[in-house]
Amino acid sequence: xxxxxxxxxxxxxxxxxxxxxxxxxxxxxxxxxxxxxxxxxxxxxxxxxxxxxxxxxxxxxxxxxxxxxxxxxxxxxxxxxxxxxxxxxxxxxxxxxxxxxxxxxxxxxxxxxxxxxxxxxxxxxxxxxxxxxxxxxxxxxxxxxxxxxxxxxxxxxxxxxxxxxxxxxxxxxxxxxxxxxxxxxxxxxxxxxxxxxxxxxxxxxxxxxxxxxxxxxxxxxxxxxxxxxxxxxxxxxxxxxxxxxxxxxxxxxxxxxxxxxxxxxxxxxxxxxxxxxxxxxxxxxxxxx
Length: 289
Hints:
By secondary structure, the protein is an all-beta fold. It is built from one helix and 20 strands.
């Protein structure tokens, strides 16, 4: 996907209507040695329009409402509820990056605002004049209620019904370094997350879940077998919970993660660092039907 990949890292594609969204580093920071560590840790969300075969037809652009100098992504969109679930920093009022410590992630729920007035989430003392908006943009509508600054709550996957959220966390009580959890929404309230169990989770990392056609759950792991060396992509269902390796048509000896499948079932995208530079790029894949 040379038309959207940059010289830095590009990760975690997902669909919003007929557009492909993904996380990437802002161009203004390319080659800035003072911000090199920031470049590799903090992302903003971009988008491009795609045709019926999944090819980009517009230049990549920063999505309105993003680019707040904090980490944004991975994310997932629910067509039914029109909500965007996004991984962001746990300290929205803090500095962009503290080089002395890691900044953990939490989940927020965003909606697209179309009106004249909006208070931007990341500003503490904004005046109403500063916040006048005349175009559509994504704004935070609420926090996902379960969070802890000591741990990561990230990598959301939302079901087509909008009531089942899968995410990755390194919170205490899991089976490994990071596990997959599920929370169910009932009457607009999210239930306490439950671990998906040791059939799916291992002593390693289970990350980057997405929902595929027919209730398929896709995720990446470095703890399941077979495994080609680092993060590989697997698929299962929430009822079966038996992980299946996607094989060498997609997986490689490098990190492979974040596979999303278009509703048509004809194509999809995933992220891998198998290129020469070793930085993450987005790859396009076609499916035989």
